[in-house]
Design a protein that fits this description.
By secondary structure, this protein is an alpha+beta fold. The chain has 2 domains: 143 residues, no CATH class; 180 residues, no CATH class. The protein is 46% helix and 13% strand. Strands 1-5-4 form a 3-stranded antiparallel β-sheet. Strand 6 and strand 7 form a beta hairpin. Helix 3 packs antiparallel against helix 9, helix 5 packs antiparallel against helix 6 and helix 13 packs across helix 14. 43% of the residues are buried.
Amino acid sequence: MAEFLHRDRTPESYWRAVILFGQNVASYKFALGKSLIELSGSDNDFVKLEELAEPFSRHIVDHLVGAPKQATSSSSRFLNACREFGSGKITKDELLGQTAKLGFNNVIDAFHVVNREEIPIRFFVDERKQGGIRLTDELFRLRERLHFASLPHEIEARWRLVETAWQLRVTRNALAVDVDGESLVMSKNGRRANLTSCRDALNGYQKGKCFYCFNEISVVSASERLADVDHFHPRMLVQLDAPLRLDGVWNLVLSCRDCNRGINGKSSRLPHRKFLQRLDTRNEFFISSHHPLRETIIAQTGHTRQERISFLNSSYATAWEWLIHTWEPSLEHEPAF
């Protein structure tokens, strides 16, 4: 996480550190994150637990429909209440009461903890002794940032990846996250599960910036800044029968449209070698986070940092032999990673 925050200590980078690098033993962090984003539009900074319970439980209930396993533990009174509401056994008021009583026991304390330490800013303050939490200026400032609209998509993508890993009970040797068009698909023992869009899953690790020029990008479909999903080593190499596996997550980056397919864009050219170190850094962000993308990158590129660097260097050398010409953008903004 330290390398992730090294160049860019903005509110959205701290937020992404929580979502991408925090420990996952239950999906409550994701539900709380989505709830905070919703509540940041309110004029009132104090949120009673009963008020927080509505969006929090709603997000959990919605996910239980498609993924019954929302925690690593075998039982949870709160999750049982959510399931009972989903099956019509308890009312909405009863669910909210159980959520306020049971749902926040650990997640409020743990939300700002990444790698066993709290991040230096807070998006809310615990005031449960007064009956709720207090939203901070950092959260409201986050709402004003250009990247704010992409954050719910990033949370949803991360949530989908984690819950599917729990549901399939994946292990390092059995896990594979593949690319199908512009979507990520998880496979285990012949079973395939559609996960999420490549854009939503990758954007947070690139801090909402184009991989090549660091211009701002978005994952919101209606945005003029909607990112392209690009193969760092171009897919043209497949047509040339180059001996490279190019559809792995390790080779996918998000690019602005100008860099990917503009008049002077990359197109099917090989990026300049200087970008190889940037690809290594981005991939190590995956490694620093918890599975499933972590295990996928390790399986595709190597178990040690040196093995992964050697893999990238070897792949680049092969690609250069086939393509010869390299490309770089005419203008680069301030580096974000």
